[in-house]
Specification:
It contains twelve helices and 17 strands. The protein is α+β, with helices and mostly antiparallel strands. The N and C termini lie far apart (51 Å).
C-alpha cells in the first residue's frame, strides 16, 4: 500500500486517512483513533474495518438496543474517489433484528463528503438523553440539538438540516419515525432514496436518540499513484460503455432483474413457494416502470450508469408527485413476496 502526501504535508495511506472519529453520545465527547496500516491491509474495505473494530472492542456483548452497541459508519479505500460505482459506505452494529452482526450498505452521496472530512469512518457509542444530530466537517465536530426534527420524516429532515448548516452540498444520513420508535427493521436514509436497509440500523440510531449525521468536507482524497488511478478509471469507463449489464441498469434500473430473474426462478414469489408469476414483471418490472411512470434517471456519486428511477404517478388512486421509484429489492419485497402487483 503506497502512501500519499496531503496538502497539510502529513503522510497518509492511499485512499485512507488512517484515522476514525469516535463519538460518545452519553458523555458528549470526541476522540480520534489512529488505525495501523496493517489493519487496512488485513481488513479491506468499510465492512472489514467495521468488523475488526466491533470484535476488537467486544461489541457482541452489548444488547443491540443499548448504549454499548457501537454504530459504525465506515468507508473503504475507494469510497468518495471518482471511480465508477464507489459511492458506497457501510453502516454496522449488532442487529436488533437478528441479534448478531449487522451490516448494511448504502450508496448515494454521503460517502464522499464523509471521506473529505479527513476521517475514514465514525464510531458512535453511548446514548443521548434527548434527540441530537452529529455535524462532521473538516473544520470540527459538533453534537447539536435535534428536538425540532424528532418526528419528521427523512425527506423533510434532510432538507431542514441542509438549510440549518447553511450548505446545500452537505450530505445527511437520517432516520424517520420508524427508527425513532426502534422498529427492528428501520432504515437509514440519504439523498431521498439511498438506503441502508438491512439489519435495522435505523433502530440503533433511534435508541441512541441520534436523528442524523451531517457531513461536509473539502479535503482532497489521498491517491497513492495518480497515473495508475487515472488509467484504471478510464479503463472502467470504457468497459461500461459497451456493457450490456450497465446498459440494462441504465435503461430499466435494478428492477431489470424482475424480468430475467423470473425466467430462471430467482425472484421470491410468495416467499419462494412459487417459481414463476407472469403478472409480476408485467406490472412491477423495470420495463413497465420505464414505459409508464419514469420521469428521469438519478445516480449515486460519480456513477455513469444512473440506475435509480425518479417517477411520477399523475393520476388515479395511487397518484404521487415526482420522487424516488422502487428498486428491485423494494419491488420484490413489497410485490412478489406477497404476490401483489398494484
Amino acid at each position: 500500500m503506497r502512501q500519499a502526501v496531503g496538502r497539510s504535508g502529513c503522510t497518509m495511506m492511499g485512499g485512507n486517512w488512517g484515522k476514525i472519529l469516535k463519538v460518545d453520545l452519553t458523555s458528549r465527547s470526541f476522540e480520534v483513533e489512529e488505525i495501523p496500516e496493517k489493519t487496512y491491509r488485513d481488513f479491506l474495505g468499510g465492512s472489514g474495518l467495521a468488523a475488526k473494530w466491533f470484535f476488537d472492542h467486544r461489541g457482541w456483548e452489548a444488547d443491540p438496543l443499548s448504549p454499548g452497541n457501537p454504530l459504525i459508519i465506515m468507508n473503504g479505500p475507494l469510497s468518495g474517489t471518482g471511480l465508477p460505482g464507489v459511492s458506497r459506505l457501510e453502516i454496522c452494529a449488532r442487529s436488533p433484528l437478528t441479534g448478531i452482526w449487522g451490516e448494511s450498505s448504502m450508496g448515494g452521496h454521503f460517502a464522499p463528503q464523509l471521506k473529505r472530512t479527513g476521517y475514514d469512518g465514525i464510531v458512535v457509542t453511548g446514548a443521548s438523553e434527548k434527540p441530537v444530530y452529529l455535524l462532521v466537517t473538516d473544520g470540527g465536530v459538533e453534537i447539536r440539538d435535534a428536538s425540532h426534527l424528532w418526528g419528521k420524516d427523512t425527506y423533510e429532515t434532510e432538507e431542514l438540516l441542509k438549510d440549518e448548516v447553511g450548505d446545500k452540498r452537505a450530505q445527511v444520513i437520517c432516520i424517520g419515525p420508524a427508527g425513532e420508535n426502534m422498529v427492528k427493521y428501520a432504515n437509514i436514509m440519504n439523498d431521498r432514496g439511498s438506503t441502508a436497509g438491512r439489519c435495522g440500523m435505523g433502530a440503533v440510531m433511534g435508541y441512541k436518540r441520534l436523528k442524523a449525521v451531517v457531513a461536509r468536507g473539502k479535503r482532497e482524497i489521498p491517491i497513492a499513484d495518480e497515473s495508475a488511478y487515472k488509467a484504471a478509471r478510464e479503463k472502467m469507463a470504457e468497459i461500461l460503455k459497451f456493457s450490456l449489464v450497465a446498459d440494462a441498469f441504465r435503461s430499466f434500473g435494478s428492477n431489470v432483474h424482475m424480468e430475467y430473474g423470473m425466467a430462471i426462478g430467482d425472484v421470491p414469489v410468495k416467499n419462494w413457494r412459487e417459481a414463476y408469476w407472469a403478472e409480476g414483471p408485467e406490472k412491477l418490472g423495470g420495463t413497465a416502470v420505464a414505459e409508464s411512470i419514469l420521469k428521469r434517471n438519478h445516480s449515486c456519486y460519480a456513477c455513469p450508469i444512473s440506475c435509480k428511477r425518479i417517477v411520477e404517478v399523475a393520476s388515479g388512486p395511487y397518484a404521487m408527485e415526482e420522487g424516488p421509484g422502487s428498486e428491485y429489492e423494494a419491488a420484490a419485497a413489497m410485490g412478489n413476496l406477497q404476490r401483489m402487483d398494484s
